[in-house]
Design goal:
Layout (H helix, E strand, L loop, with lengths): L8 E6 L2 H9 L4 E4 L1 H7 L14 H13 L7 E5 L8 H11 L3 E4 L8 H9 L4 H13 L3 E6 L2 H9 L4 E5 L16 H18 L4 E5 L6 H10 L4 E4 L5 H38 L7 H15 L4 E6 L4 H9 L5 E6 L6 H9 L17 E7 L6 H13 L1 E3 L6 E3 L3 E8 L14 H7 L3 E3 L10 H8 L10 H9 L5 H9 L2 H5 L6 H11 L6 H19 L4 H8 L3 H10 L5
Parallel strand pairs: 1-2, 1-8, 2-3, 3-4, 4-5, 5-6, 6-7, 7-8, 9-14, 9-15, 10-11, 11-14
Antiparallel strand pairs: 12-13
């Protein structure tokens, strides 16, 4: 260990390789391998190191040589006692040097015993004087020595011998689960440290004076002591090893427990959301449906106009009913695409000068709770901009008068999206100003092909006899692989008389194919639709399940082997 002075030394008295590596990453200057640290790692308090339960030198040296020296780059000082039956100071110092340690500290030490016990040890040649002799022998071999002391007299012995570092031990650490109770204040120990430190520096100015133990539990405690007295460093035992470990493990377990509770809470929230969805007519529990219900509930509880994006055949009426549920007024719809002239839709919205006094415009009708406008992008841009202004202002001018009427119902703009249209693409013909008024109240009802996991929930809701077991495995695969371009409307057309067929046994694949062909809203070509739909269905399921074939096969209702063969057939393996 370098003798070059640093501004402030930090030492860590530890008992395991993991703690040593953590201390090294934290920037510790040196490590002390002591039996108290090893016992702390076993769960015992530091004071257990003074009990005759292990051979202290053998216990300490074993873990230090196996766990510290091969891994740690900072200097390691070995804690050595002078109480071995065959103790020999020169042989021990030579052995420590040969093993690769940077130095030695006197631990466990007689300083922890009572004065009468210390006198008995000194009389037997195994007292504080022997510990100083060991450290002097260590220094004579070019290594570093640190002397633990508890009194002025002990510090004087070490300073007279020229020991590199003297660490005043303030007693066993307080704090933590197995720590001692506080007996002295920070100010009291600072006063003692100031007195001992001055003595040490007076005898040998080159000796580094450090503190350890006592009431110093935190960096703030050390900072207070450091302001009251001059010290060259600090050695942390329990403060670096036991107490942070207790706190961090307890906190980490608590965080993991909280994560478990959070997951349970999320599961409960999801179940409540699905229950709310069932009450409003939504069946299933697919991720796409859950996400939609979450957004739907937020939009239902908020104010302002809504943009609902659906595909042909989707249950938009169910969505509108959920939006208006528990609110006053009825749901009234205006279909711009069905009106003979756009002017008719404008009149329904804003009224006409000839009838405004007799019939309230849709936007100002108190009997209307939710006013829906289908194909809103087909309205002339002038009408769309007028609608945007009315929604922004909350009022509009009645035709033929200067009187302003309040906008009373909530407005839902409905856009029918094509099945092959990429979600998120701009809506052709829709005024940007009107879209800005909608803001975040945009709902996209996921098409049935994105909710294929809900298929049999929907079937059973429509026909209780059409459970999954009512179909053969091939029929289940065919239904699951179908693209459902007509969504729930197509599903209603498909099930037809299938429930009657279920009475005579599982419904076969050919019966399903026949129904798909009859209900195909595009071409009636069952084979082409089914085959093309199957490829797209498999590809979509692979994406949704992270390309995990087991989960994909399960979601599609087929075996893993069948899925593998279909992946090869459709060229999806690349």
């Amino acid at each position: 260990m370098s003798r070059k002075h640093k501004d402030f030394l930090i030492g860590a008295a530890i008992g395991s390789g993991s703690t040593a590596l953590a201390a090294e990453r934290g920037g510790v200057d040196f490590l002390l391998a002591i039996n108290a640290g090893r016992l702390r790692a076993m769960g015992a308090p530091s004071i257990a190191c003074m009990l005759p339960i292990f051979d202290a030198n053998r216990l300490t040296r074993a873990f230090a040589e196996e766990e510290l020296l091969p891994r740690c780059k900072v200097p390691v000082l070995l804690g050595c006692a002078v109480w071995d039956a065959d103790w020999d100071v020169e042989r021990l110092a030579e052995s420590v040097s040969a093993s690769g340690f940077a130095g030695v500290t006197n631990f466990p030490s007689g300083m922890h015993y009572s004065r009468p016990m210390q006198q008995l040890l000194s009389a037997a040649g195994r007292g504080i004087e022997a510990e100083v002799a060991l450290l002097r022998a260590v220094q004579d071999r070019g290594m570093t020595a640190m002397f633990y002391c508890a009194t002025r007299m002990q510090a004087r012995l070490a300073a007279d011998a020229g020991i590199d570092m003297i660490c005043l031990n303030l007693g066993w650490n307080v704090g933590g689960m197995v720590g001692h109770r506080r007996r002295a204040s920070l100010e009291e120990v600072a006063s003692v440290a100031r007195e001992v430190g001055r003595l040490v520096k007076k005898i040998n100015p080159e000796t580094r004076f450090l503190l350890e133990g006592g009431p110093i539990e935190t960096a703030e405690d050390l900072s207070r002591v450091n302001r009251l007295t001059d010290i060259d460093g600090y050695v942390g035992g329990s403060t670096f090893e036991r107490m942070p470990l207790e706190a961090s493990i307890a906190d980490q377990i608590d965080r993991f427990r909280h994560a478990s509770r959070s997951r349970n809470a999320r599961d409960m929230q999801t179940e409540r959301l699905l229950s709310w969805g069932r009450q409003n007519g939504f069946k299933g529990r697919s991720p796409a449906l859950i996400e939609f219900l979450r957004k739907l509930k937020l939009v239902q509880e908020s104010d302002g106009p809504i943009l609902l994006i659906v595909e042909r055949g989707s249950p938009e009426a169910t969505v509108l009913s959920a939006l208006q549920k528990e609110k006053d007024g009825s749901v009234v719809g205006i279909d711009v695409g069905a009106e003979e002239h756009p002017g008719r839709a404008r009149t329904l919205l804003f009224g006409h000068r000839d009838t405004v006094e007799k019939r309230r415009p849709g936007l100002a009708d108190p009997a209307v709770g939710l006013l829906t406008i289908r194909h809103v992008n087909r309205l002339p841009l002038t009408v769309q901009r007028r609608l945007a202004r009315a929604l922004a202002d909350g009022a509009f001018r009645a035709p033929g008068t200067w009187r302003r009427l309040p906008v009373l119902p909530r407005v839902a703009l409905i856009h029918e999206q094509q099945a092959d249209q990429v979600p998120g693409m701009p809506i052709s013909g829709l005024d940007e100003g009107l879209l800005d008024i909608v803001g975040g109240n945009v709902l996209r009802l996921p098409p049935l092909r994105e909710r294929v996991e809900d298929l049999f929930d929907l079937l059973e809701d429509r026909k209780p006899s059409l459970t999954r077991t009512a179909f053969t495995a091939a029929a289940v695969q065919r239904l699951s692989a179908h693209a459902w371009p007509g969504n729930e409307a197509e599903l209603d057309a498909v099930i037809g008389d299938l429930s009657a067929m279920a009475r005579s046994g599982p419904i076969p694949e050919d019966a399903v194919l026949a129904r798909l062909a009859a209900s195909d809203p595009v071409s009636g070509a069952a084979g082409r639709v089914a085959r093309g739909g199957e490829k797209e269905r498999i590809l979509d399921a692979l994406w949704r399940n992270g390309f995990n074939r087991s989960r994909t096969a399960e979601s599609l209702g087929m075996s893993r082997k069948t899925l593998y063969n279909k992946i090869k057939r459709y060229g999806l393996s690349g």
